[in-house]
Each structure stands twice: as structure tokens, then as C-alpha cells.
């Protein structure tokens, strides 16, 4: 049953749920009204029974005889019963037969019973009051319930008709409301189908004059579509750029192999060719590694930027003792990135400085308010103002830099790691500054030298 309901359209489920709620509400209201009317009618009958009992009880003689004319004047039927329930005398509209079984007779005091059923209709229905007299006999006083039962049956019929009519109206109103509420959703679905079919520049039509759950859903979906389009655009651009960059080393490899096969070569010549090929393969491996790092940046975690930068500089000097490289700091600098992420940032910035700049290269780590500034500066020619703005783009390199090692992915990786952590990448040279990422209230403090700074939110211990 549950699976069958789940397969129904949402509009029908909404209407069905609305009708079930209305049915429960109407049933509860009808039951309350029926109970109050029944209580009022029974209370009126009970007052008549009590008055008739008070009038007839003194008329019962020792042998069970009753002054019939005086008892009948009450308008109620009556019976005098023996202690075991046998009818000793009767009068009024009460029948001569026994109305109550022996097990229903009270042992003391009085009790009130209904004899006969309301539904289905019974031709002999009574409201009966039985009182145990002092000598052990019982006085039964009864009034007919015909009018009371007829009134209750009429009430049930009217409540049923009113309930059916109310449910019909509720079904129509609920269907109209559900259609109106789901109509924008259907428009969204149709437009989403057009977008899925290839119309990527379309957006959902969201009315500006309304602010409800459906319109907020539309705005959210439009934002999501915009983000997806931007992401797809970036991916397409990345694939195109990667294809272009990979084509050059692959072409160079193919050319070297073709040249090597043109004539017979000595072992030494083959060794030199293999050495050249190894350099090209190493560049391809470096490019592939950087592409993988761009696809899986490591951001989450915590580390001390000062300690990580010092470790990178120490290992670099161990591998290249001839380099003019130093690191300074003003103390511990906790940031919300993993050690691996900070290490990749420092390594890329230092490698860029030595590849495209001029020694000495200085790494400086300091705290500035709520941020940590990690700056790498060199004494090289720097970048033009136009190149400063586009330098973090993937595969971006100046014309003179294309003859040097590298693929143009280092700053892209740094920018992705920094912006993912809520920080800012800042490039400064000769008084020109460009920023990438979040807005950071820290002033630039660099001179004419080429400086690449990373500003990260400071993390408290």
C-alpha cells in the first residue's frame, strides 16, 4: 500500500493527504456534536424518569399493587418487579414483558438503561430507570425514546451529508491549491529539460515579486546552474590549455625519436639521445603531477606556517647548497591548512622565484592581525602590470618565460589552495599590486622587488 501511494503523482498525494486530514477533523467534530446532542436529549429524558419515579414509588403497596390511575398520570410506563426480576404489576406504555434481564438489575440504589437499538431502527426503544425499593422489590419506570432516536438519526444523516459535501469542496480546493503550488515547479522542470538538452545559457524564470519556498528554490537552482556553467567553462578551458601544453613536449619527443632513427648511431650517441628524452619525459611527469595536484588540492587541517617554510628552505638548501635562499619570521604562525598544503605553496613559490627571478630569494613569514602573511621575494625583473593580473591563470607564461623550465601551473595551484582556505594571493612588483581571492585588510609593504604573498586566516591554538 505504501509503495502504491509513493508511485502516485505528488499532486494526488497532496490532495489525498489534505482529504485525510479533513476527514479526521470532520469526524472528530461530528462525534463531538453528536455526543453533546445525545447528552442533552438523554438528560431531558432522565429528568422525566426521575420525576416519574418520585411520583410512583409512594404508590407501590405491600403486595406490589399500584394506584394505577395516579401512576399513569405521570405519562411514563412502569413495572413493579420481584427481587428476582419477575413482573408483579405494570401500567402506562410499558409492556407486560420483562424489559431487563436479571443480571442488569441493581442491588441497591438506582440505575438507568437504554433498551432497544438506535441503528438499525428498533420499534420498541425505551429509556429505563430501575430503583431498588426498601422491601427488596424493584420499581422500573420507562419512557419511549422514539423522538430522541429520530433526532439522533437525523443528526447523523445531516452530519454525513455535510461531511461528504465538505470533502468534495476540500478535494476541489486542494486540487486547485496543489496545481497552483506545483505549477512553478513544472515550469522549472520544463526549463531544466531544455537546459539538459544543451541550452546551457538558459535560466529558470523566477518572479521577482514573490518570496516563498518555490521562488527561493528557483533562485538557488539558478545559482547552481551558474556555478555549473562556470565550472564547465573552467574545465573546458583547462582541457584545451592542457592539450595545448602537452602537445609541445609530445611533439618534441616524437621529433627526437624520428631524428634518432634516421641513421645508425653509436652507443654514445644513443646515450645522449636517451638523456635528452629523459629530460623531456621528466618535464611531462612534472606537468602531469601538477595537473593531478590541481585536481586534488589538500586544504583541510592545521599547521605552523613558520615551521613548514623553514623546513622547505632547509631541504632546498640541502639539495642545492649553492642557492642564495633564506627564511625569516616573527614567531609561530598557525594557519588552517595542512602541512602538505603549506609545503606545496612554499615549494611552488620558491621554485618560481629561482626559475623566473634572480637570487637572492627571501621567504618571510609574519602575522598581521587576524592573518598570516607568507611572502617570497626575489631580485629579478618581475612582471609587467598586465601579467601580474593574469599570472595565476593556468598555463599562463610570458613570452620570455616559455624558454625556461615550467608549465605555468605553479601559481594556479597556489591560488587554488589559498582561495580554498579563505585567503588571498597577492602579486607585487615595482609599486603595482594585484590580488586574487578573499578581501584581506592587510596593506602591501613591498618595494620594487618581485614579491608573491600568501595571506591566510590565522588559526588560534
Describe this structure in words.
This protein is an alpha+beta fold and 461 residues long. The protein has three domains: 2-150, Beta-Lactamase (2-Layer Sandwich), CATH 3.30.450; 208-296, Helix Hairpins, CATH 1.10.287; 298-457, 2-Layer Sandwich (Heat Shock Protein 90). Helices cover 51% and strands 16% of the residues. The protein is built from ten helices and 13 strands. The strands form three sheets. The protein has a six-stranded mixed beta sheet with strand order 7-9-10-13-11-12. A hairpin with a 5-residue loop joins strand 4 (126-132) and strand 5.
- Class of the largest domain, according to the CATH hierarchy? Alpha Beta
User: What's the architecture of the largest domain in CATH terms?
Assistant: 2-Layer Sandwich
CATH superfamily of the largest domain: Histidine kinase-like ATPase, C-terminal domain
The tally of helices reads: 10
User: How many domains in all?
Assistant: 3
Strand content range:
15-25%
CA radius of gyration is: 48 Å
Low-confidence stretches: 398-406
Largest sheet: 6 strands, mixed
Count the E strands: 13
Strand order of the largest sheet: 7-9-10-13-11-12
Amino acid at each position: 500500500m505504501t509503495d502504491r501511494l509513493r508511485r502516485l503523482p505528488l499532486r494526488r498525494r497532496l490532495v489525498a493527504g489534505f482529504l485525510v486530514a479533513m476527514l479526521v477533523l470532520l469526524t472528530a467534530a461530528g462525534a463531538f456534536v453528536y455526543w453533546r446532542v445525545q447528552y442533552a436529549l438523554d438528560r431531558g429524558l432522565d429528568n422525566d424518569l426521575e420525576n416519574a419515579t418520585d411520583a410512583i414509588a409512594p404508590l407501590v403497596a405491600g403486595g406490589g399493587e399500584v394506584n394505577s390511575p395516579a401512576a399513569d398520570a405521570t405519562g411514563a410506563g412502569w413495572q413493579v418487579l420481584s427481587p428476582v426480576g419477575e413482573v408483579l404489576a405494570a401500567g402506562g406504555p410499558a409492556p407486560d414483558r420483562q424489559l431487563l434481564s436479571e443480571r442488569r438489575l441493581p442491588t441497591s440504589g438506582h440505575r438507568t438503561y437504554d433498551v432497544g437499538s438506535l441503528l438499525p431502527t428498533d420499534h420498541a426503544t425505551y429509556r429505563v430507570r430501575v430503583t431498588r425499593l426498601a422491601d427488596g422489590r424493584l420499581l422500573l419506570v420507562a419512557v419511549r425514546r422514539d423522538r430522541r432516536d429520530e433526532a439522533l438519526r437525523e443528526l447523523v444523516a445531516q452530519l454525513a451529508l455535510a461531511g461528504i459535501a465538505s470533502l468534495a469542496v476540500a478535494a476541489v480546493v486542494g486540487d486547485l491549491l496543489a496545481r497552483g503550488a506545483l505549477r512553478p515547479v513544472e515550469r522549472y522542470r520544463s526549463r531544466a529539460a531544455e537546459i539538459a538538452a544543451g541550452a546551457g545559457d538558459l535560466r529558470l524564470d523566477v518572479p521577482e515579486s514573490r518570496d516563498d519556498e518555490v521562488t527561493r528554490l528557483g533562485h538557488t537552482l539558478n545559482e547552481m546552474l551558474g556555478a555549473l556553467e562556470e565550472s564547465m567553462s573552467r574545465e573546458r578551458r583547462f582541457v584545451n590549455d592542457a592539450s595545448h601544453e602537452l602537445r609541445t613536449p609530445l611533439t618534441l619527443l616524437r621529433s627526437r625519436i624520428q631524428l634518432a632513427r634516421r641513421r645508425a648511431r653509436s652507443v654514445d650517441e644513443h646515450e645522449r639521445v636517451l638523456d635528452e628524452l629523459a629530460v623531456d619525459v621528466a618535464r611531462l611527469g612534472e606537468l602531469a603531477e601538477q595537473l593531478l595536484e590541481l585536481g586534488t588540492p589538500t586544504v583541510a587541517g592545521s599547521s605552523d606556517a613558520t615551521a613548514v617554510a623553514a623546513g622547505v628552505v632547509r631541504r632546498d638548501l640541502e639539495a642545492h647548497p649553492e642557492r642564495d635562499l633564506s627564511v625569516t619570521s616573527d614567531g609561530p604562525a598557525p594557519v588552517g591548512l595542512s602541512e602538505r598544503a603549506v609545503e606545496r605553496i612554499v615549494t611552488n613559490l620558491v621554485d618560481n622565484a629561482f626559475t623566473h627571478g634572480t637570487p637572492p630569494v627571501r621567504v618571510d613569514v609574519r602575522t598581521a592581525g587576524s592573518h598570516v602573511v607568507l611572502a617570497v621575494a626575489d631580485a629579478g625583473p618581475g612582471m609587467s602590470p598586465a601579467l601580474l593580473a593574469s599570472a595565476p591563470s593556468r598555463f599562463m607564461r610570458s613570452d620570455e618565460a616559455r624558454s625556461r623550465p615550467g608549465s605555468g601551473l605553479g601559481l594556479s595551484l597556489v591560488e587554488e589552495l589559498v582561495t580554498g582556505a579563505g585567503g588571498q594571493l597577492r602579486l607585487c612588483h615595482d609599486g603595482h599590486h594585484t590580488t586574487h581571492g578573499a578581501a584581506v585588510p592587510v596593506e602591501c609593504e613591498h618595494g620594487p622587488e618581485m614579491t608573491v604573498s600568501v595571506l591566510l586566516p590565522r588559526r588560534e591554538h
